[in-house]
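Following up on my earlier thread - several people asked me to post the actual chain instead of describing it. Fair enough. Here it is, all 264 residues.
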Amino acid sequence: MAVTVKKNSKLTDFFSSPSTSKSKSFSLPRTPLFDLNPPPPKKKKLSFDIKDSKQLTLNAGQKTSSLEPCETCGMIYKRFDDREVEYHTDYHNRFTSLKYFHVSTAKIEKLSRTVFCIRHSIDHTFFPVEYDSPIFIKKVSSIVEDVVNKELGFPRDIPLFGANNRCVVWICVSRKELKYFISCVLVSEILDKAHWNDTHEIFRHQPLFGINRIWTHPLARKQGIASAMIRSAMRFKSCERFAISEPTEAGKKLARSLSRLQTE
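Reply from S.P.:
Thanks for posting it. Predicted structure:
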């Protein structure tokens, strides 16, 4: 019996499937059982909705770190932090308390013996401070820049002693409860002319005591300290008349008070 061997063109033909005509009806689609590159699982984003009844917020008395700005002084602090609250209180009240204006007792006693001063009373002493004075320069400069200029509406960085260092700053050092503090600040300048506030007429007089800025601590107001210091400074400079720079209502009231005292 003769056997005929079918010649295969490729090695893989020996492993080829049987005739497709018989198994065609039984063929199944080739669907992969596993995905070799599955996509990363999507995480559902959580959102907080205060109106959602399914969500609860646990309040165990924990402190928050929210910052709160002060509308008055502008400082931003943590209102639940005791240290920051205390620091804000000191900063907020620094211009109304005596701590910021404090002067040591030893320094005052030494200066009273070595530097020219005018003792108004047992509790109030007037000191003149010039641009080359060895006393109170740093202290007075910070008070004028941070307090006086701000309250009176002057630019913070305006030269304290003027463009030509002609201004003299008078300060009143007061005593309260055995502690000394700067209670009044007067920035003055000797002028040779001024103009009337109503008519703007030029008034010439030599010398003329110019009041550039005058400020009194809230705890020392309505005690006549500002008027007394102006009169003392005018006598020291041998001035009979004065002029106030851009007087406010309080400045006009002070001017009327000084004029009345001069005529009495």
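The radius of gyration is 43 Å. That should answer part of your original question.
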